[in-house]
Amino acid sequence: MVSKYCIPTPEKADQSAHPDVGRAPLDMKAKWFEHSTAYTMAKFGMSMCVLGLSGELRNAGVAVNALWPRTTIATAAVGNLLGGDAMMRASRTPEIMGDAAYVIFTKPSREFTGQFCIDDKVLYASGVRDFEPYRVDPTRAVDVGLLCDRR
Question: Which entry of 5, 39, 102, 134 is annotated as an active-site residue?
């Protein structure tokens, strides 16, 4: 609903317009649903809004993309709900999301829309090779899951 109501503003912009949505890539595997079906359905529903709005707004020059972190990000939610101080130390800083969003926002909106982006992949594609500054605690390993495609 918020996206729908903010559409008139980017449509009037003289430059690239990029409402960005923090939503998970669509990956219809049981592992995402098995412990939290309702939550995952809600998240994926919002992800489908990215696809729908990107198609709806493409001709107006408004890009709608999703940005998702590969790892946990050191936020209050992670500290309070997902594992306290230990999880915070094993997370990346919020700056990685801000830097990735900046890369997305500076792309031409008529050429880059309807994408589901992962923070470190966006940064890697833009030339960033050192992800150490994004670690909350340099002595703790960050679980990056799958490594960035280095091709």
Answer: 39
Burial class (CB in 10 A: 0-12, 13-18, 19+), 96: buried
Give the per-residue pLDDT at 13. Answer: 57
Distance spanning both ends of the chain, measured CA to CA: 38
pLDDT in tens, 60-76: 888 889 999 999 999 99
pTM over 0.85: no
Q: Please name the amino acid found at residue 6.
A: C
Q: Contact at 8 Å (CB) between 47 and 93?
A: no
Q: List the beta bridge partners of residue 135.
A: 92
CA 134 → CA 26, 29, 82, 130, distances in Å? 26, 29, 19, 9
Tokens of 107: 């792309």
Ranges of beta strands (E only) in the chain are 20-21, 65-68, 116-118
By CB neighbour count within 10 A (0-12 exposed, 13-18 middle, 19+ buried), where does 105 fall?
middle
39 is catalytic: yes
